[in-house]
Structure formats: structure tokens, C-alpha cells
Known about the structure:
The protein is α+β, with helices and mostly antiparallel strands. The protein has nine helices and four strands, in the order βααααααβαααββ.
Amino acid sequence: MTDLTLACLDRDEALSGALAELYGSTRAEFLRRSAIGGAAMLGALLVPSPAAAAMDDVGILRFGLRFEYLQSTFYTQAEEVGTVHRMASRKQQWAQVLGAHERAHVKILKQVLGRRAEAKPFFDFHGTTEREGAFTRTAVAMEDLTVALLSGITPQIRDRALTAALFGLLTVEARHAAWARNIVGATPASRAFDEPRSLGQVGLVVDRTRFVVRRPRTSARRQAPQTTG
């Protein structure tokens, strides 16, 4: 996972646009080309963003929905191409449960946002969902990132009812992350405290993976097997 970058993910630039709003186009471009977790990326992310601080509850939830679209599609595609069904029963159960939860998260966020919910982008996981090892490692990274995201954005929510709901989501995602780490033989809780990440930080990580691709220009053209909308 050390080679995973935001530039590998966002060909559609749906997330890049959100990052540019948060950090400005120059800084967003620099970060999308940086290695995830690298010193350059982390240093740039520490610089406060007035735009991120000013984002309202709807903006935060809309970004959360984009990220949940990414996760739910990732698990769903791994099931559709048969990768999950070729796993040992313990791993198969894990992947199916997490996939079902992520799809439920999408449904809930869409209901909360109503007409303000965005359509799902198209994703290209570059074969990651077709290989058990790559799928599992990417799932672990995604779950860890989700916990960090929710830890960072939940305190920014102004509506107390939404804050309580996001805390409920955070506890479930923390269990996902621990379960995923256990599946790959990693320590479920390696530190006494988790480091929260801001919406902008997580967006930049997603941007570097280039899993988000451009929507096909015509519906008549058949999509490649690895692309899911």
C-alpha cells in the first residue's frame, strides 16, 4: 500500500474539485501527486484551510457520501467479479458484512441529504477488486482512513443530532478497521490514540488513488469490466 497515491484514484476529478475548494488548486495538485502518508503530503495537510473550517454540515455530509460511494462500490465490485466468493469462509463473511454496511451507510446519507445528495461517480479500481491480496490490503487502508476521517469531521458538525449519528457511524467503522486488521494478521489497535484526519486530508488520499474515473460519454458504449458506476 505504500505506493498508493491519490493520483491513482480520481480520474473523474470529482474529489479533486472538492479538494481545490478546500485548499486551492495549486496545493491540491501538489498533494494529489504526493505519496500517501509521505512527509510532503502530511506537512502540507497540517496547514489550516479557511474554506474547510467554513464548510457547513451539508458540505461535510456530501463529501462523506462521496467517500461512502467509493467504499460501497469497492466491496460490491469484489463480490460481483467473484473475488469475495473465492475467499475462505472467514474472510468471505468479513467482506460481505462490511460491504453490506457500506451500502447501508450510502443509503442513510442519501436520505439525510435528500435532493442535495450527489450522484455516484464512476470508479476504476485497476484490478484491485479482482485479486484477493490486493483487495484485502486496500480494504484495510480504506477502513483505517474512514475512522480517521470520521474522527476529524464529526466535531465540525453543528447539528447535534447529526453529530450523534456520526459518532454511531464512527464506532461501527472502528470495528470494521479492527476486523480488517485482524483478517490480515495486523494488530487491530496498534496505538492508544487514533490520529483524526480532516475532510481535506482524506480527500487528498482518495484523490491520489485515481479510483474515481470519468463518466462514459455515451450510455451505449459498453464499460470495461473493472469500471463500476
